[in-house]
Amino acid sequence: MNTLKAEEKPKAVKKGVGKSLSDLLNGNFLTSDGMISLLPYIFFLTFLALLYIANGYYAENKIREINSLGNEMKELRSEYITTKSELMFKSKQSEVARTLSPYGIKESVVPPKKIVIIK
């Protein structure tokens, strides 16, 4: 025989946790028949996980949008109240008379007359 070649020792078969860890790190568990039959289930779980993540992002965006619309609504409400108070002030009889006095239009001191038509 060849004396230069070292004698091959049979590899010890790993049992238990060591074998499982070795299969996990090597990727051997992916090629087993049991794992191939579970691929549709794994893809389904992956799809559900992605759907769950997307739903979280969608919900966060909607919350931000609701908050910004709430702030905008508060600003518009305050603008509405301000504009309404300005309109009420400018439509008072004294303000209308003061605004029209430069144009020569004055407030009437004679009360209006009622016109009655008899048929």
Mean pLDDT: 87
What profile does the largest beta sheet have?
A: none
From the helix content, strand content and strand pairing, which structural class follows? mainly alpha
Low-confidence stretches: none
Strand segment count: 0
Query: How much strand?
Result: under 5%
What is the 3D shape? Answer: rod-shaped
Cα radius of gyration in angstroms: 44 Å
Order of helices and strands: HHHH
The number of helical segments is 4
Helix content: 55-70%
Q: What is the CA–CA distance across the termini?
A: 145 Å
List the SSEs and their pairings.
Blueprint: H1 17-26, H2 33-37, H3 39-90, H4 93-100
Descriptive overview:
- This protein is mainly α and 119 residues long.
- The protein has a domain at 17-77.
- It is built from 4 helices and no strands.
- The model has no long low-confidence stretch (mean pLDDT 87).
Give the gist of this structure.
Helices cover 63% and strands 0% of the residues. The chain has 119 residues and is mainly α.
Features:
about 120 residues; mainly alpha
